[in-house]
Amino acid sequence: MVKYWIGVVPKEYVELAVKENFCQVCNGKRFFISKMNLNDRLIYYSPKINMTTTNKYQKFIAVGTIASKLEYQVEMYPGFTPFRKKMSFETIQREVSLSELKDNPEWLKYRANLRFGHFKISKSLFLTIYKKMMSNEL
Q1: Would 5 disulfide with which of 37, 42, 109, 117, CB 3.0-4.6 Å?
Q2: Exposure pattern of 11-22 as b/e (b: 16+ CB <10 Å)?
């Protein structure tokens, strides 16, 4: 059964993931990446541009499908070897601002989970966000 997820990651790291077709969440901890299975769907939300900025970004910026059961580790830099899974990304039409969901009753049930960095959502909420990302209309 396909599960639907949100990963909370700064934009610069999501852009790297999209470029290299991988998924990484929660600073690369294996526990979190292992929760996602082949064909699960993930939407990346970026609260900010990078780890060092205090400026808010607050947009859903990428969407894809987990393309492998296996986790693998890479050395991003000495002493940091995060776990990843292969992921197939889709080309979106636009990034979706968090404010676009502020009145969505289903989102209101999930929004506090952003602080956890990675969490499962319903298929219907996934489709709500996905359709906005795939549409040019605000």
Answers
A1: 42
A2: bebbbebbeeeb
Which single residue is written with the structure tokens 């990078």?
A: 50
- Name the maximum alpha-carbon separation found in the chain: 44
DSSP assigned state of 17: H
> Which sign does the torsion angle of CA 48, 62, 40, 131 carry?
positive
Geometric angle at alpha carbon 110, from 62 and 24, rounded to 5°: 35
Q: What is the pTM of this model?
A: 0.95
Task: Decide: helix, strand or coil at residue 110.
Answer: helix
- Output the CA torsion 9→109→95→31 (10° steps): 30
Span 54-76, average pLDDT: 95
